[in-house]
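Appendix B. One record, verbatim.
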Amino acid sequence: MSQEIEIEFKNLLTKEEFNRLKAHLQFSDSDFFKQVNYYFDTEDFLLKRHGSALRIRETASGSELTLKEPAGEGLLETTQPLNIGEKKTMLLMGVLPDGPVKEQLRKRKFPFERIMCFGSLTTERAEKKYRSGLVVLDFSSYLNQHDYEIEYETEDFKTGQKIFHELLQKENIPLRKTANKIARFYEAKLKQTDENK
């Protein structure tokens, strides 16, 4: 189990901007790896309403369950590894395994027995150390949509923000108000639901 404060800056990109940054940061195609995020909430989006998010992230090395909650500057992330059985049970029945994530939700008096899986988002990701943080390029696919994004993860808000803005300016990329992946996923999901009514 781990708990940490996540401070990251993000910006949506056009395909052309993504390719420009890929070249500038010297990423090759072989630097990209695949990860799949499965998103969970109650039917009435209780987690989302509290600015929180619950996901399973699956990579080649295994799966982990992460709860993200607001925490001053950034987000508090509570993470635990999942075995194949726990992952299957969560995906099929919404049953949370015992552990720190369930404890954190119990502390918040969250009705975790009501959670369900809303779908998945697949990301092709490349990352590397950049100055005092980690720069990440993502190409994500979900609900018949695709988007391109840059993230910059840092331990210091002010320094990280300055480095991130300088990088975008250097490549003439406008700063765009960018929601996180789960928010973009839910926005697309709600739109899809409305269209199907």
